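Weekly structure sync, notes
Attendees: PL (lead), two postdocs, one rotation student
Agenda item 3: pending single-chain targets
PL asked that the sequence for the first pending target be pasted directly into the notes so everyone works from the same version. It is reproduced below exactly as submitted, 120 residues in total.
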Amino acid sequence: MPTKRHYRLRGRREEFGGGKLLQLKTGRDFFADGYGRRDPDREAMREDWRLHGAGIVRDWIGEHPCSRPWGFYQFESLPGDPKQAGRGFVRVNGQVVSEREYLRDAGLLTVDELRIVEEK
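Predicted structure, written out during the meeting:
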């Protein structure tokens, strides 16, 4: 009796974008088309961040100055090992501080972002 056979291509990676991009920006897999909801593929995320992280951060800063996407806090080596603690805040060494303040104090703001901070 004939059967349907399904083959997995080893070493072949899916295209980057869509749900994967959104998950690296927000940390959430809204449409189940990213790295997984309950047990995300952290190694694939780390590799895609290595390949695409700089562009993601650049685009993010253009839309959300003085903040960074979720993947930035997960996969970059940062002083104080910060973790996001709600929109606009990070937890550093047990204390919650504004994301803008953390990035400024750590010297991680771009020149354009520093101008924004100085204006306010």
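Discussion points:
- The CA atoms of residues 82 and 92 lie 5 Å apart.
- Residues 42-63 form the longest helix (22 residues).
Action: rotation student to compare against the earlier draft before next sync.
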